[in-house]
Design goal:
This protein is an alpha+beta fold and 322 residues long. 64% of the residues lie in helices and 10% in strands.
Length: 322
């Protein structure tokens, strides 16, 4: 099934200065966001107490924050759980020190902290009740954060080794730069909208790394094949043809994956909401970078058919390739 004619001649490289320039601007913006706002680490990584509360009547987030402030819980992070009656309250360890909880979070006394939170909420709205509460120790959260960083590093290193073995070095460089582009934009998006960076979001980022490289490998494989078959064509033409000939496959894969993530986002509930949102953004970024970023980088790196042809004694020109 083909959505696009594989023999179409869309000139994707013709707008490479615009697309790559825009990508660079977005990458720099992501770096600035991460430096200024950072990531909203969830309890998985920071430790503390998570309390989920339910109201019989709709409640505004500002009302919940005001009730917590009045009860002595300062700097609590309050979020809606997909409706107007359910809220999530995240308390860092230091947030319950002093009169409100006397350091209960550090002691692991989540029950007492949750009880104090409920009293603060019911002082403002008697219809408040607790749905659940949980505690994560700060050392456990720090270990999870370190393990997550190590996992991401190993995934990237593994992909770099795979690309270096499978492709000529210019293809490898372009693929690695594309991976950096996709992950950086995704993490910048996470920082921008302020969703909690928990284990499910980390899993989404790792999945995006694999999804993104798969798209690039398909396009690069076709480019390598065309370089070997069309010896008289110029790199500009071949790289454009490789995008056009894989465009249907790229779009179909992206759309089917996005539909699954959209179903999770709509009907999966709060537990997978952030995972699905991150994946949806990563799918869009990975697809666009496969079309508008990876091949322009490959073109600027100076790839040519001599990089892919085997050295033979009968072809002195190829034997003298750099």
């Amino acid at each position: 099934m083909e959505f696009f004619n594989p023999n179409s001649r869309f000139d994707f490289l013709g707008i490479r200065k615009i697309t790559v320039g825009l990508s660079i601007v977005l990458m720099l913006a992501s770096v600035v966001l991460l430096g200024v706002r950072g990531l909203n680490y969830a309890l998985d990584f920071t430790g503390g107490v998570l309390v989920e509360a339910k109201y019989e009547e709709p409640v505004a987030i500002d009302q919940v924050r005001a009730a917590l402030e009045a009860g002595g819980f300062h700097n609590a992070q309050v979020q809606s759980l997909g409706g107007t009656r359910d809220v999530s309250i995240r308390l860092q360890p230091q947030a319950v020190e002093g009169g409100a909880g006397e350091g209960d979070a550090e002691k692991g006394n989540a029950d007492q902290v949750a009880g104090n939170v409920l009293k603060a909420l019911q002082a403002a709205r008697p219809d408040a009740s607790l749905s659940r509460h949980d505690f994560v120790g700060p050392q456990v959260g720090e270990d999870l954060k370190n393990d997550g960083i190590v996992a991401a590093v190993f995934v990237v290193l593994g992909i770099m080794i795979y690309i270096a073995i499978r492709f000529e070095k210019r293809f490898a460089y372009a693929a690695i730069l594309s991976e950096v582009h996709d992950v950086l934009l995704t993490v910048g998006f996470i920082s921008l909208i302020g969703i909690e960076f928990d284990l499910t979001v980390l899993a989404a980022v790792l999945a995006i790394i694999g999804y993104s490289i798969n798209d690039k490998v398909v396009v690069f494989d076709r480019a390598r094949e065309l370089f070997r078959l069309a010896r008289k064509s110029e790199p500009y033409e071949i790289l454009n043809r490789s995008i056009n000939q894989t465009l249907s496959r790229t779009i179909m894969t992206s759309v089917t994956t996005a539909i699954s993530m959209l179903a999770l986002f709509i009907g999966g509930g709060p537990a997978v909401h952030n995972f699905a949102m991150t994946m949806l953004f990563g799918i869009v970024v990975g697809t666009l970078s496969s079309i508008f970023f990876a091949n322009p980088i490959l073109y600027w790196l100076g790839v040519s058919k001599t990089d892919l042809m085997p050295v033979t004694r009968d072809d002195p020109e190829l034997a003298r390739r750099p």
